[in-house]
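Please, structure for the following, as tokens.
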Amino acid sequence: MDWMKIKSVCRIVLILFCSVLVTSSCISYKFNGASINYDKIKSITIENFSNRSALVWGPMEPKLNTAIKDIYAQQTRLKLVNKGGDLQIGGEITGYEQSNKSIAADGYTSMNSLRLTINVRFTNNTNHAEDFEQQFSATRDFDAKQQLASVQEELVNQMIKEIVDQIFNATVANW
């Protein structure tokens, strides 16, 4: 086959794929991974996640709560309601720990690890078979020569983004 034929076949496949996406009427598929039946699911309730970890960094709780609400507002058509949503998400921050990751030849710590763990309870009031309670976590490493306070905000922001993506995928990306 020459390149012109391959190019034509690729165009046809792409057109067919796009046609299928456009014509699916009751389930919305987005390139962000969300697959929601908007005929059945119209609203979401997201409870504030409290911080129950032993180590506490004050800004973490509001950053997490804002990030979770933002992802559903930006990537779905679900209406955020205070109570009784078709989907309900709640939970708590259960772990925020710093630990030694590796030891250098001189016997001192060379890398530290920071881990954030979130417990999530998800309820789908239109299909309780999809309900779950699950832990989501993320870890970031940093040089032991750095103080946690100097890298904490950047690392927590990265971990929150990763965990929020995990939660989003587990709740509305049912591929």
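Residues 148-172 form the longest helix (25 residues). The two ends are 34 Å apart (CA to CA).
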